[in-house]
């Protein structure tokens, strides 16, 4: 990190790869892409979180800022003698454990023991690296020979198969709750439906007791016993209200007298036909009325098919002749003993 801080912005720092691991460069690139994909999927990519993840734009003041020596647009590689090794780069530089194991199987009989020892050391480092642990790389296991079963194991196996071959016993159906009211509650309703028997006590005759004789009413009781006196000063007219002389001398007009009489048509409708002069007389408007097509259509009687009376009441249908009675019908047809 301190290399990037101390370098100017125009110069790019290129870290050289060792010559021994250049052959593993394609594998390293694929592993890096896979790790970058895992890193991208492990976070929630919401706009708010991504905006907060960006660093603030403020200038850092490193301890030492060298002056850029390159004036042309040409990258300059800064090589430091005291450059620290990065653990992540070192672990990613190891080849894949699976490839090393396949390579070991191929050259097991060709290489000397000291070279195979170095190869085992590389396999151990690759398996114990952080990225092999994240990928859950497991060392190969030796294949164990499958031993044959003896008679006791076969008998146990056949016993298990017979048990599994039996038909499955279904579970009993769940009990359906009964919706009927229990008898205890019905007795309670029957008891509540009866009228309450109240014991009527005869009221004793009124007598003047000793406490009544010595009772003294309070001031509040005396105020409530007084009659209410209403204030007549707030009224617009004096009581009793006087009738004006113009109302006493008023004479009703002819129109007022006509309106005061009851409605003749309404009284005739309300009166019963027994009180009319001729209750069976038909009005002239009813004699002149002409019925519409719809009224004539509704006045005609509707024809119904009589399904109760048949032409031959003793005839038997062909379906009844071909019918076969059920055992329950035969049982019910027998006379009761």
UniProtKB/TrEMBL annotation:
Repeat listed as a keyword: yes
Polar residues: bias regions: 259-272
Record key words, sorted: Repeat
Keyword Transport attributed: no
InterPro entries hit by this protein: SPMAP2-like (IPR042401), THEG (IPR006623)
Segments for region (Disordered): 253-272, 309-337
Record field: compositional bias (Basic and acidic residues): 328-337
Protein's UniProt name: Testicular haploid expressed gene protein-like
The organism of origin for this protein: Musca domestica
């Amino acid at each position: 990190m301190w290399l990037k801080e101390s370098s100017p912005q125009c110069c790019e720092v290129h870290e050289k790869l060792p010559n021994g691991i250049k052959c593993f460069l394609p594998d390293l690139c694929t592993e890096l892409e896979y790790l970058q994909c895992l890193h991208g999927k492990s976070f929630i990519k919401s706009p708010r979180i991504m905006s907060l993840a960006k660093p603030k734009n403020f200038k850092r003041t490193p301890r030492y800022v060298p002056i850029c020596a390159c004036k042309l647009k040409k990258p300059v590689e800064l090589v430091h003698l005291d450059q620290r090794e990065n653990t992540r780069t070192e672990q990613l530089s190891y080849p894949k454990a699976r490839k090393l194991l396949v390579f070991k199987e191929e050259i097991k009989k060709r290489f000397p023991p000291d070279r195979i020892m170095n190869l085992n050391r590389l396999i151990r480092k690759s398996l114990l690296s952080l990225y092999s642990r994240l990928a859950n790389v497991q060392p190969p296991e030796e294949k164990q020979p499958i031993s044959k079963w003896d008679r006791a194991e076969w008998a146990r196996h056949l016993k298990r198969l017979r048990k599994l071959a039996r038909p499955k016993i279904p579970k009993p159906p769940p009990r359906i709750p009964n919706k009927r009211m229990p008898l205890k509650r019905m007795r309670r309703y029957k008891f509540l439906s009866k009228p309450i028997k109240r014991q009527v006590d005869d009221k004793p005759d009124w007598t003047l007791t000793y406490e009544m004789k010595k009772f003294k009413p309070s001031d509040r009781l005396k105020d409530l016993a007084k009659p209410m006196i209403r204030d007549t000063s707030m009224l617009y007219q004096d009581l009793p209200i006087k009738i004006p002389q113009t109302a006493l001398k008023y004479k009703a007009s002819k129109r007022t007298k006509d309106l005061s009489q009851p409605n003749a048509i309404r009284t005739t409708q309300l009166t019963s036909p027994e009180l009319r002069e001729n209750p069976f007389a038909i009005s002239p408007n009813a004699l002149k009325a002409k019925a519409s097509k719809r009224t004539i259509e509704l006045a005609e009687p509707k024809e119904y098919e009589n399904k109760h009376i048949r032409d031959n009441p003793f005839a038997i249908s062909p379906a009844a002749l071909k019918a076969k009675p059920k055992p329950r019908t035969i049982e019910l047809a027998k006379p009761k003993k």
